[in-house]
Amino acid sequence: MQTLLSLIKMAAVLAGGLMLGRMFFEEVKRAKRAGAPWYTPYGTLPGILVLVALVLPLIVWLYGRLR
Predict the structure, then answer these.
(1) What are the structural domain ranges in the chain?
(2) Whole-number pLDDT of residue 3
(3) Nearest to 28 by CA among 18, 43, 17
(4) DSSP 3-state of 17
(5) If 0-12 CB within 10 Å is exposed, 13-18 middle and 19+ buried, where does residue 44 land?
(6) pTM, to two decimals
(7) pLDDT tens sequence across 12-57
(8) Pairing with 67, which of 3, 36, 40, 51 sits 20 to 30 Å away (CA)?
(9) CA 2, CA 8: separation in Å to the nearest integer?
């Protein structure tokens, strides 16, 4: 039962990551079509969430090291 619960949790995180990645990729394609600068997609909600997901482990690691 515990293994099944762990698999369900992993699948939920994977599905959320896939949805966020797809939304961000759509923003990248939209910005490319519009001829906007490369950094424009990072100012959208999916872009901000991607940046937070990339920086959060570093912040947690630094917090643990400095504490």
Answers:
(1) 2-66
(2) 95
(3) 43
(4) helix
(5) middle
(6) 0.83
(7) 999 999 999 999 999 999 999 999 999 999 999 999 999 999 999 9
(8) 51
(9) 10
